[in-house]
Amino acid sequence: MKGPFDPGLDVRPLRAPLGFEYGTGVFGPPPERRALDAIRRSLRDPSCDGPDPAYAIAMDVGRVEHRSELLGRLLLFGVVTYAAGRLGDEPVRSQGHVHRVAAHSGWSPPELYEIWEGRAIVYMQERAADDAGRCFAVEAGPGETVVVPPGWAHATISASGLEPMTFGAWCDREYGFEYDAVRARGGLAFFPVLDSGWGIRWARNARYDAPELEVRRARTYPELGLVRGEPIYRTFARNPDAVQWVSDPARVAPIWNGFEP
Question: What stretch of H or E contains 227?
């Protein structure tokens, strides 16, 4: 039987209350617990009931010996853990957003996700505009990675309300979230809807002109220097330059043209 995924970083999710425990030699802040009220405007039913807080997030986590390297490279590692349960007829999920353009790069940064426990869906669409462009829902389990390209609107979804879900992510240190365009349209272009067996179907948001949603499994990203089976924090520890494209997307600019997650 396969054991729990080892992310190469001694960070353990807590359930009551939601948060994290950091091991020896690991730094990290107290978690920010995201209240249900904070995400209602992105939900299919903004008046729904559900776990509150829905999830806890800790930004700027890492090994003590890497702190100066992370600062110098403008890289940030974050961890997020979701409660079990459902938000009305949707699974627990984040609110849709776009990354704010970073002043140091002039890009809306990409993001690299890695699922640690549970199962996740990273939903993304090319634009937070009436014409949403291409739309993908990428399903991933422990040890699998998903890349959100620069400028795309996205949300992270627990693939089942029956268990908690935890993931880590490489982000730009100047991270920021823009919500207004998504909130103005009552969410993203597709909503994940749970059926009676806790399976997911996708419902269109009528406020968008969007093509068909493409649902796919997580893949590897050799074109971005990622190694199959190697946790993304260990990739950084082995070769910090390997994930530098997260805070410097221009160094792999040709890859983003027509990128498919």
Answer: none
Domains, the chain, ordered by start = 13-249 (2.60.120.10)
What is the bridge-based pairing of β-strands 120-125 and 165-172? unpaired
Q: 55-90, pLDDT tens digit by residue? A: 999 999 999 999 999 999 999 999 999 999 999 999
| Residue 179, burial from CB neighbour count under 10 angstroms (0-12, 13-18, 19+) | middle
**Local structure of 147: helix, strand or coil:** strand
* Full DSSP string of 201-226: EEEE-TTSB--PPEEEE----GGGT-
CB proximity list for 3: less than 8 A, separation 6 or greater: none
Is the Cβ–Cβ distance between 60 and 40 less than 8 Å?
no
What whole-number distance in Å separates Cα of residue 10 and Cα of residue 237? 14
Per-residue pLDDT of 84-116, as tens digits, reads: 999 999 999 999 999 999 999 999 999 999 999
Pick from 77, 73, 91: nearest CA to 232: 77
Structure confidence at residue 2 (pLDDT): 59
- Whether this model's pTM surpasses 0.85: yes
Q: What 3-state DSSP class applies to 60?
A: coil
